[in-house]
Amino acid sequence: MAPFPYQRLAYLFNAIQAETLPQEELAKRFAVSSRTIRTDITLLNEILLEYGAHIHYERGAGYRLVIGASTDVAALSQAANEVKPLPRTSKARVWRLLVRFLTDPMPVKLDEIADEWFVSRGTLQQDMLEVRAFFEKYPLMLETRPRHGIHVSGAESAIRNCISDIFCQMGGGENKIEVQSAMRAYLGNIDLDDIEKILQNCFDRFDIKLSHDALRVLSINCAVSIKRISTAHEIVEWEVSDIDTVVKQASHEIIQGLSRYLGNAFSAAEVTWLQIQIAARRIIVSSSQVRGEINSLEITDSIFNYIKRVYNYDLRHDTKLHHDLTMHLVAMFTRVKYQVSTANPLLEDIKKYYPFAWDVTLSAMAEIESAIPYTLSVDELGYLAIHIGVGLERNYSAGFVRYPCVLIVSDSGNAVQRMIEAKILRQFPQIIVQRMISLREYELLDAIDEDFIISTVRLAEKNRPAVNVALFPTPYQIEQIGRLVMVDRTRPWLLARFFDEKRFMIVRGPMTQGALFRQGCNLLKAQGYINDDFYPSLLERESITSTMLGEGIAIPHALGLRAKKTAVITILAPNGIAWSNKGEVAYVIFLLAICKEDSEEAMGIYDLFMTFVREKATRRLINSQNFSDFQLIAQDSFGRSI
């Protein structure tokens, strides 16, 4: 029996056996705390004592394995490798099930797996919902054969893509070691590093550029293809007409290098399959490489024209963005045409941290979908959103910013006033000087509209803070002004302008998403913010992909800027509202209507919502009893995020 009671101890032993490692590195590698590492080391030493070895901590270096004269290192290593860990979480079970279905030559029986993993059949059935949803993206199906089990069915190309994605995308943290182990077990004597060298050498000679990640994915895909061919799962027929000459020449050279793993030649269909994989993942750097049945230049122009027309953001003059997006579209259309799936590991972060760019992309692609004869996956849309987001940030300073407005009060002459203004603007160019008035004019005012006051004379503060300065401001006075300049005024201003008690709701009883949409749109229409076309567009946007932002916060909205006037309905649902078929539940909902005239503020409004997500403010927000409570909690969240 293996001496290691759980898998991390075996992996920890292997890691320290290979090299001396500090505690912090071990904690990071295994995604646990330093305290857990110390506990594991103590337990490991108790086990290793029987083998005449121990783990020693050396200050400044880390943990290293000390082997005694009688230590049986081979027995220890074999014991570590014999550990067969049980999947303890749903995520781990789903990954194991995916690997089983795709790599086992025989149908899989859930009853046997339930007994092997010590879980109930009901637990596995819940995991199978996620497994089936994963396979549907490729598309693959699970077929049940009575008394035999379940097996995967679908096109050979889809099965290869699915296996490659599982090995490439689903390994991280402590799971990475298990993924690598499963991949080695599946590939057998196929050397992944050797395949990567064959590919890289060939690409260097033919000047074909791939990112590091794309090269790794292609290497795994080639290894999986070799494995599938060797087990009689060959692609029999595959024809293409839009692969350029360079890729064709490179593929034939690569095939020669890979043939030794098969012992015979690859079929013509397999060579074509490799050409598609290369074309779908290469980085297009020149317009001379632009080929295909879809005109990527026209699609890029259509996207930019739509964004200008609907959102009032003009990206058409950004030549770098135009080039990058066009080149990306060429490879993307190759992928979607030949169903070469590309999982996007950044997708959830894109939707969560760049929601405005994500929505602009969804809206633009929905508008021009008739010009594209393929269905784009959310993963591909995520990559497009990165390009659009970069363009928006580069050209529009990442969104709307409200700069501080200042009132200058001085009884000096006009020349001195202008000198003070120039001095302040030189120090703080973001300041907007709204007015310059005398002390008497100031005293006649009931209230101040500007954000703060800079005065060369002593005055009584009204409703805004004031800083007294000399005609030549001292460093301390400049510092005082700087503190007021640095105060975030954008988000509080947006909150005051677009949120209102008349559009604040608390839903305490049961309510469906559809009923909420209808009620919210009726309120917006009654108050004159939207027309009849808003509600259908709201439903269409939600049907594309969920508007759940994260932390139980959802931001339903229409495609594009369709509102007559900008407004936000704030809905708090302490009991939650079912938001999608993925089990998402929304507790704080911001029904968003933005008009084209407020396009500059749109990015700022989205950033405001992201503040609530970053500050994990959901629980505090749903405890609000009224709009005033909501405002106070929102303002506090803004202050915390600065």
TrEMBL record:
Record Pfam families: HTH_11, PRD, PTS_EIIA_2
Taxon lineage: Bacteria, Pseudomonadati, Pseudomonadota, Gammaproteobacteria, Enterobacterales
Domain PTS EIIA type-2, chain residue ranges per copy: 497-637
Keywords assigned: Repeat
PRD domain span: 291-398
The protein, known as: Transcription antiterminator BglG
Superkingdom in the source lineage: Bacteria
Keyword Coiled coil assigned: no
GO molecular function annotation: protein-N(PI)-phosphohistidine-sugar phosphotransferase activity
Domain named PTS EIIB type-2: residues: 404-493
Organism: Superficieibacter electus
UniProt record, GO biological process: phosphoenolpyruvate-dependent sugar phosphotransferase system; regulation of DNA-templated transcription
